[in-house]
Specification:
Largest sheet: 4 strands, antiparallel
Order of helices and strands: EHHHEHEEHEE
Number of domains: 2
Oligomer: single chain
Strand order of the largest sheet: 3-4-2-5
Number of strands: 6
Distance between the termini: 11 Å
Structural class: alpha+beta
Strand content: 15-25%
CATH architecture of the largest domain: 2-Layer Sandwich
Length: 179
């Protein structure tokens, strides 16, 4: 694959959109130091090339009635690929599970689960999670509080460009588009 270097303008756009997804294109272009039309073209190109996967609102779980967050370490009886995929497909059907990561080591999956209260989590645990075929064990850890919740990835604005996959980013700074 060809390499592309995101320039400082692309990195600023990504940084600012990640921090404030509802920023207007006019404000984003001011922060990036370019006019609005090329800024919008860059944003669209970043979306099309998979650097921006989507936009979402950051909701307050407690305000919506979810007072419990649990991290469940799940071990499966079989780690054959069809069994791993079957579990991943099952997890997709559970709205309580907000995140699911397959891990290396003693635990096969780490789930982030939200519930109204401890009783609601227990109901989920006993009627859905442990009732799922191929579950060997579940270890639950109740979150006391979140010390840090920062979405996305760190974007270093001091670095003029990192080599990433896809296309070529060349040309005039005002008009260049990623990949």
């Amino acid at each position: 694959m060809q390499k592309v270097k995101l320039d400082h303008i692309d990195r600023r756009i990504l940084h600012d959109l990640q921090a404030e997804g509802r920023i207007t294109n006019v404000e984003l272009s001011k922060r990036a130091g370019i006019s609005a039309p090329p800024c919008l073209r860059r944003v669209r190109a970043l979306e099309e090339n998979g650097y921006i996967l989507g936009y979402h609102a950051d909701l307050d779980p407690k305000a919506l009635g979810y007072h419990v967050t649990v991290f469940a370490q799940v071990g499966l009886s079989s780690q054959a690929e069809p069994d791993l995929e079957a579990f991943e497909n099952t997890v997709q059907q559970w709205p309580e599970v907000r995140e699911c990561f397959m891990l290396a080591g003693e635990t096969d999956f780490l789930l982030k689960i939200v519930a109204a209260d401890w009783d609601a989590y227990q109901e989920f645990l006993t009627t859905k999670l442990t009732a799922t075929p191929n579950i060997n064990h579940v270890r639950s850890s109740l979150s006391i509080r979140a010390a840090k919740t920062e979405p996305g990835v760190p974007i270093d604005l001091a670095v003029p460009g990192d080599e990433l996959e896809e296309g070529d980013n060349s040309g005039d700074a005002e008009e260049a588009e990623p990949g």
